[in-house]
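Lab notebook: predicted structure, single chain.

Context: the supervisor wants predicted structures on file for every construct in the current expression panel, including those that have not yet been purified. This is the next one on the list. No modifications to the sequence; it matches the entry in the shared construct table.
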Amino acid sequence: MTDAKGEHFFQSTLVQTLFYGVFAAWVLWHRSHLAAAGALRLGKAARYLHVPILRKLFREMTDPTQLDEWENLTEVMNWAGDTLNRVERGAFFDKFKDAEAVQYFYEPFLEAFDRTCVSSSASGTTPPEIVKYMVARVDQVLKVDFGRPDGLGRSGVFVLDPCCGTGAYLVEVLHTIATTLAEQGEGGTLANGSSRPP
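Prediction complete. Output recorded below exactly as produced.
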């Protein structure tokens, strides 16, 4: 899409990715021991994004020489970081589990930022209860109807979510697999001490 609509969609997606990245980095920074030392700085945000391709993309997009080409987006991104640094984190994370905070952030941000993008692309998040039900139902069908006791965790079972957004379905699939493995005595504990992925 090279027309004005395509350009708008690309720019909107880029800005969403930047703000989503800042918020995700802030949540992950909060988990780290460095959070007590002060505030998250935009230039350091990429280090908290654990997916290598996202970290690289975010580093490149937060390079001031890249952002300044788009009407001083660096300043706006710094405002976003400053706003997050003013949040009372104790109160915020008492209300939201940190693993769910980004998902709760995404839809209201998208609605406020670009309503035309939401309506034209049908963007939105699925409520967590529906995600849990749908993943549990597929896992159950695999176990009972197809005789695969490992369900979603069985070798040869592939999961595709082409509209993954915040990744809620994929995260729930990982939780379900970890629970199955733990129940079978194969999962052990994870780095955070739980039997479910962080």
